[in-house]
Amino acid sequence: MTRSWIILGATSSMARAFARSVAERGDRVIVAGRDMADLKAMATDLALRGAASAEAMRFDARDPATFGPIVQKAELEPGEINVAVFVGSMPAQAEIDADPALISGVVADNFTGPVRFLAEIAPLLEARAGGTVVGVSSVAGDRGRISNYTYGAAKAGFATYLSGLRNRLTRAGAHVVTVKPGFVDTSMTWGIEGMFLVASPEKVAADILKAVEKRRNVLYTPGFWWLIMTIIKLVPERIFKKLSI
Amino acid sequence: MLWKTTDYTGWGRVHRAAGDLARPERAAELARLIEDSPGPAFGMRRSYNDSALNDTGRAIDMTRMTKIRAFDPETGVVEVEAGLQIGDLLRLFAPRGWIPAAMPGTGFATIGGAIAHDVHGKNHHVLGSFGQHVLSVTLLQPGGRQVVASPSRNKALFRATIGGIGQTGVIVSARLQLLRTPGPAMRVQESRIDSFDEFIARLDASSQTYTVGWIDGTARGAGLGRGILEEAELTDAAVQPARGGLPVPVDLPSFALSPPTVKLFNAAYWRKVPGRGRNSVKPIARHLFPLDKLHNWNRLYGKRGFHQFQCVVPPASVGVLREILEKIAASGLASPLSVLKRMGDGRAGMLSFPMAGYTLAIDFPARQQAETLIAELEAMTLEAGGRLYLGKDALAPGEMIKAMYPEWEAWRAEADKADPEGQLITDMVRRLALRSPR
Fold first, then answer.
1. Is residue A4 within 8 Å of residue A81, measured between CB atoms?
2. Using CA of residue B174, residue B179, residue B180, residue B184, what is the dihedral sign?
3. Contacts of residue A49 in chain B, CB cutoff 8 Å?
4. Digit-coded pLDDT (tens) for B26-40
């Protein structure tokens, strides 16, 4: 079966690992993001790793004008259309507290940008009656914590949207996987203190691909984060508000 | 964040460093780093010693620079970024009929590291060293100057870069000539060897492309030098693909590899191959990278770490090799990981390790006794006209290393020219005083 993947935020560590895993099994890939020089090099790399085709396109979560051309390109792709959203940004909470103007960028990168793109491409998945949307949210979206609650709130919004989109697309035979990674060894987390049980992007990518194949709804990766977050969610708010985790 | 402040070690975990590491993921980030804050680059840090350390300084971790830039399926020429691992190159291209022409004992080594140490593999006596299959190297030198070196262009720089321990510029990418393979597997023939003399005779007589000997470093007397000879050829025979490995989750206590356990293990391992020999077909990676099954196997030696002694001696000095082995066996300090191999004269750089003869590699847990023994073995190697390996040795004095590498001064001149301010100097280069003082 011909499968095409549209990968947004493709230059991130996790997206690169995921793009390579679908390329190696021969899927078609469109990688989209802002760094066109790196995306073009990436497309060459993916084609040489086995992708049936690989192309670079511009996607900027803060510039909805970049969305339409990708959707139009996807309409020309043969077979099953799949979308993987790895877009996101995480400025330090202290920076945001010092400059609240940063909030609209965080919300655009993690929530409104991806959501608007998915709204524009959803009819195509419905028309093809198949395909999967992978949306990368975060364990940070499960509960607002002092260390990154703006980012967490945007990711929570994204997860809620994905839940609704799943509800909608399932009627057409398409599927949505919500991914909640814990700590992953990416350039976003490089050098941040207090990280533990850090997973490699390759491990997370492999988990995501398995979840797509098994049509899982919500994936915590690595799996033990489900347990950690279940416990964190159970802490009563009157106690939680005093914690700094 | 750009810089991560961290402690890190070489593979042997004896030498340690603390410093700031940057890990670029894109070409533009890497270029900016080398322009703004040059430092030595390293890959997976599979060198046993301090070759990939820069204590108290900055360094560039290349492990996320892993793109394949070009491949010609007709000629087998591939261009890759320096952080790509040899095992990945093998995995990706073997199904298309091409493999790296020279592969070291681990698939986790990066292309950049393989170039910087001019690594060799089990087929060295036939196909030479890794550097001999490098068509060109792209370097970024401190200040951001990009230079391409090849056997025909910037020749001296090329010869100083291959095996040049990262001192001529950060290796960004390389064009490699891959080797044709009939299939993704190897036909392996294992033979039990009873003595040192038999081992040397069998290594000399072997007509196979991939040849390596596992040697029981604890056997003495009549059994001195006993082991298993593994001879292999590439094949198109069907084989199950290699599976993923297992981690060593914790540092083992130091008694895990104590003399009695090693002796027992070695005897059992030797007897595992029947007297009449044994044939099998294995995936290439399984045969060439046997220890990669056990991730972080360096933890087997406990937190004090270990040394690997590796020397090569010319054929005329085979008697010295026997004396070295006798000394090791008498000490009772050897570990199970001991390798004997015939080596050809193939080398591509001024500081390349290989020379025609025999190479012996043996691991020792890092203890005072072992270090004293290794110092003696090193002196014997020098006496025999042999050489120590810069990817492994952590103990030899600088004067000894310089005496073993006749092109050292020419190399130093090229390194000083490429990096006049010494911004690429590593702990090993400092320890051995290989660069000009500044």
1. yes
2. negative
3. 68, 92
4. 999 999 999 999 999
Helix (H) or strand (E) holding B399: helix B398-404
Alpha-carbon distance of B25 to B20, in angstroms, equals 16
Q: Are B295 and B248 in contact (CB under 8 A)?
A: yes
Residue A114's CB is within 10 A of a number of other CB atoms, namely 29
pLDDT of residue A9: 97
Count of CB atoms within 10 A of residue B111's CB?
Answer: 29
In the stretch 62-121 of chain A, residues with CB closer than 8 A to chain B read none
* Sequence-distant (≥ 6) Cβ neighbours of residue B276 within 8 angstroms: none
Low-confidence ranges of chain B (pLDDT < 70): 1, 242-244, 254
Chain-chain contact of A37 with B27 (C-beta, under 8 angstroms): yes
Contact B375, B395 (CB under 8 A): yes
CA end-to-end distance (rounded Å), chain B? 32
Contacts of B27 in chain A (CB under 8 A): 37-38, 41
| Strand, helix or coil for residue B170 | strand
The helix (H) or strand (E) run that includes residue B187 is strand B185-193
Please name each of the domains of chain B with its CATH number: 68-181 (3.30.465.10), 185-401 (3.30.70.2520)
**Whether the Cβ atoms of residue A55 and residue A31 lie closer than 8 Å to each other:** yes
CATH class label, A3-240: alpha beta
Tally Cβ neighbours within 10 Å of residue B37.
15
Tokens in use for B265?
Answer: 């293990």
What is the distance in angstroms between the Cα of B74 and the nearest Cα belonging to chain A? 14
Q: For the segment B123-157, what is each residue's pLDDT rounded down to a tens digit?
A: 999 999 999 999 999 999 998 999 999 999 999 99
Instruction: Give me the count of residues in chain B.
Output: 438
User: What backbone phi and psi angles, to 5 degrees, belong to B326?
Assistant: -60, -45
Nearest chain A residue (CA) to B67: A45
- B88 interfacial to chain A (CB closer than 8 Å): no
